[in-house]
């Protein structure tokens, strides 16, 4: 085997049927150009990693990274890029929606001096319509692109693209700074480094998915909005903290609804109703954080129960800290509203920091 000139990263989840197809198409498109294909599988239940490894036994160009207890497209891309051998790395979907025949064109642009080449659906010659079955998704993609462009500027026509290529130097730089959460790593890279890079675009036609189901859904949307706000603040507010705060805000409604229902409709005493409402809010907060904020470290089975107990404990300590600080500030002649808000913010920061290390720690 020749040393690869290009490493192609295929982040995958439940793509067992598509992996053989895309690997074959990439081989046809690359011809005699030495390359490697790295499938980064987020522990798919459909056996994606097994399919990739089986192909790798016959064709050493193909390698597989299986991520256990870790999820998220951005994190998968970074791990794949850090495992790549070639001086140039590309990222594309494994679902056949990206046009592999554009890879040699993108490679030529990198070799011509570009730091980053983006496959664009919105450049002249490109087409985004083929990959969306519903008009609502197409309109949603256009809206997300417009919002992203307000932050990234005019560096690209398609900051939301999942099809791009970059130099090893840029990949190494991005790996130390970009968020591992969410699904839009290109947007994160361009918003951070766009002014420093030579960026070029190559049009491509966004194709219809061949097998499987789209990963675009509520979770992806919420994570993207969190990333959008985080980048708008220059990264001052972490994505996870934004999501954690959003979940906490939803817990306020759960708490009040439970309290009013128990005390107002079922006649439960206020003190008991308040305690039960607090536990109800903490339980839903834990469940939502497990699904949204920490989807890449999602707790299941026995770990879900132990995680819930640690979440109760941490939030209980946070509540005591909230009250203690608010009371002390009020005694120092702060207004009740300001003292209460300061206590709530301190409690939220404490809960976020500690549950991140204890409840959803890396395992």
From TrEMBL:
This is Glycosyltransferase family 2 protein. It comes from the Bacteria. Its main location: membrane. Coiled coil: none annotated. Residues 244-360 form the GtrA/DPMS transmembrane domain. Keywords: Glycosyltransferase, Membrane, Transferase, Transmembrane, Transmembrane helix. The keyword Membrane applies. Belongs to the glycosyltransferase 2 family. InterPro entries: DPM1-like (IPR039528), Glyco_trans_2-like (IPR001173), GtrA_DPMS_TM (IPR007267), Nucleotide-diphossugar_trans (IPR029044). It comes from Oricola cellulosilytica. It is a multi-pass membrane protein. It is found in: Membrane.
């Amino acid at each position: 085997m020749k040393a690869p000139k290009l490493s192609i990263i295929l982040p995958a989840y439940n793509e067992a049927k598509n992996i053989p197809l895309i690997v074959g198409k990439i081989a046809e498109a690359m011809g005699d150009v030495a390359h490697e294909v790295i499938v980064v599988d987020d522990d798919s239940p459909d056996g994606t990693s097994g399919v990739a490894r089986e192909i790798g036994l016959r064709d050493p160009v193909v390698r597989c990274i299986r991520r256990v207890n870790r999820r998220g497209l951005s994190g998968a891309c970074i791990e794949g890029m850090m495992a790549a051998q070639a001086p140039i790395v590309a990222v594309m979907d494994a679902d056949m929606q990206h046009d592999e025949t554009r890879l040699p064109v993108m490679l030529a642009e990198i070799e011509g001096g570009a730091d980053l080449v983006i496959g664009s659906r919105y450049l002249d010659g490109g087409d985004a319509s083929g990959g969306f079955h519903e008009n609502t998704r197409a309109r949603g993609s256009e809206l997300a692109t417009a919002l992203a462009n307000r932050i990234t500027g005019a560096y690209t026509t398609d900051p939301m693209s999942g099809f791009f290529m970059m130099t090893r130097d840029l990949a190494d730089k991005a790996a130390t700074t970009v968020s591992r959460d969410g699904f839009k790593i290109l947007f994160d890279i361009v918003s951070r480094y766009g002014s420093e890079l030579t960026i070029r675009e190559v049009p491509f036609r966004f194709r219809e998915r061949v097998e499987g189901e789209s990963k675009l859904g509520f979770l992806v949307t919420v994570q993207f909005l969190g990333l959008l706000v985080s980048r708008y603040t220059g990264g001052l507010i972490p994505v996870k903290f934004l999501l954690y705060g959003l979940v906490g805000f939803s817990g306020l409604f759960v708490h009040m609804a439970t309290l009013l229902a128990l005390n107002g409709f079922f006649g439960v005493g206020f003190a008991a109703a308040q305690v039960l409402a607090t536990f109800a809010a903490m339980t839903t907060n834990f469940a939502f954080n497990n699904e949204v904020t920490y989807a890449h470290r999602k707790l299941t089975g026995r770990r879900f129960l132990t995680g819930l107990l640690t979440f109760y404990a941490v939030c209980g300590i946070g509540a005591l800290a909230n009250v203690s600080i608010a009371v002390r500030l009020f005694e120092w002649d702060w207004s009740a509203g300001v003292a209460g808000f300061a206590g709530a913010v301190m409690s939220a920061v404490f809960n976020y920091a500690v549950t991140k290390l204890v409840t959803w720690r890396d395992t």
